[in-house]
């Protein structure tokens, strides 16, 4: 077998360890063996670099992704990947240089423009970020990502009217866009528009019914509206999905405590106590749980 064929074989072995068997250590070994056989085999450098990137071992990822950019001089993707790594390393100037090179290499590359917008955000240049995101929208108006990036930027700056316009554009393109649905719900809560927030959370649960955080947030709105039975059901659903959600456990305990005060029963009392002790076993510094438990113990006396 020639060396290039052997490199491909080791690469495929690495992919199996990496993607199928979820064994990154074995994958790293195989990718390295691939590169011994063919030091110019770019896909092995890519995968090896991304394993290091996921491990936040940026110093090892850098020579891998740099080598890819050297081997694939006409690849905007290689430059975008290298720019992303520089972002993670907080080397924003170098990240910008990579993204600008990618954009110059492929003028219609929307990803490069979005990346430049994101770097501008990180650098605190709001107006430049808006400019890049609007440019990306003009380049690809039917793509959800540019609208979402601009919406999120507006959202972060409490420009809710502008954010809503862009989130709605995202949802026109992709009605099940989970992040847009979640952010719209959160924003309407901030605006005091609980009915609209409930609508977006319910749409999000149609997309992903097993999202414990969303069930918890939905419960919080029902509780605010005085719909305690509906709130309790939502909190219980959240805990059913993820028993270790501290906030959902505390929220349910708080409602149960209110019910206990109005109609004391030993069973309900013990359930509340057990729930709060469970939260404190996860996080002994959970002040809300400690306070509620102290109030409950005072009631016992």
Task: Write a short abstract of this structure.
By secondary structure, the chain is an all-alpha fold.
Map the helices and strands.
Blueprint: H1 3-20, H2 24-37, H3 42-54, H4 58-71, H5 76-88, H6 92-105, H7 110-122, H8 126-139, H9 144-156, H10 160-173, H11 178-190, H12 194-207, H13 212-224, H14 228-241, H15 246-262, H16 266-282, H17 287-300
Q: Could you list some keywords that capture this structure?
A:
mainly alpha, 0% strand, Serine Threonine Protein Phosphatase 5, Tetratricopeptide repeat, single chain, globular, 17 helices, 301 residues
Describe the structure.
The protein is mainly alpha-helical and 301 residues long. It is 80% helix and 0% strand. It has 17 helices and no strands. α6 runs antiparallel to α7. The longest helix has 18 residues. It starts with a helix and ends with a helix. The mean pLDDT is 94.
CATH architecture of the domain at 230-301: Alpha Horseshoe
The CATH topology of the domain at 230-301 is given as Serine Threonine Protein Phosphatase 5, Tetratricopeptide repeat
- The total strand number stands at 0
- What is the overall shape? globular
Report the average pLDDT across residues. 94
Fourth CATH level, the homologous superfamily of the domain at 230-301: Tetratricopeptide repeat domain
Estimate percent helicity.
Answer: over 70%
Distinct helical segment count: 17
Describe the largest sheet: none
| Alpha-beta content class | mainly alpha
> Which radius of gyration do the C-alpha atoms yield?
25 Å
**How far from one another are the termini?**
82 Å
Share of residues in strands = under 5%
The unreliable regions are: none
């Amino acid at each position: 077998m020639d060396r290039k064929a052997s490199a491909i074989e080791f690469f495929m072995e690495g992919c199996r360890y990496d993607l199928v068997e979820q064994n990154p250590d074995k994958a790293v070994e195989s990718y390295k063996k691939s590169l011994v056989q063919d030091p110019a085999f770019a896909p092995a450098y890519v995968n090896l670099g991304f394993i290091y990137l996921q491990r936040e071992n940026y110093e090892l990822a850098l020579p891998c992704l740099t080598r890819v950019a050297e081997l694939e001089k006409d690849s905007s993707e290689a430059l975008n990947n290298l720019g992303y790594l520089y972002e993670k390393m907080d080397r924003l100037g170098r990240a910008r240089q990579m993204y600008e090179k990618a954009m110059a290499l492929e003028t219609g590359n929307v990803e490069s423009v979005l990346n430049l917008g994101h770097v501008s955000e990180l650098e605190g240049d709001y107006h430049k970020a808006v400019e890049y995101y609007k440019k990306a929208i003009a380049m690809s108006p039917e793509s959800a990502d540019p609208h979402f990036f601009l919406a999120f930027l507006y959202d972060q700056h409490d420009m809710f009217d502008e954010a809503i316009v862009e989130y709605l554009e995202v949802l026109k393109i992709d009605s099940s866009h989970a992040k847009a649905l979640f952010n719209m719900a959160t924003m309407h809560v901030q605006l005091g528009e609980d009915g609209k927030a409930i609508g977006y959370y319910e749409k999000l649960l149609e997309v992903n019914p097993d999202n414990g955080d969303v069930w918890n947030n939905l419960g919080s709105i029902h509780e605010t509206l005085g719909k305690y039975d509906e709130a309790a059901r939502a909190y219980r659903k959240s805990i059913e999905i993820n028993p270790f959600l501290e906030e959902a456990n505390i929220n349910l305990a708080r409602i149960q405590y209110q019910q206990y005060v109005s109609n004391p029963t030993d069973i309900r009392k013990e359930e509340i106590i057990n729930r709060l002790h469970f939260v404190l076993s996860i996080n002994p510094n959970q002040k809300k749980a400690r306070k509620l438990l102290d109030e409950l113990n005072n009631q016992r006396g």
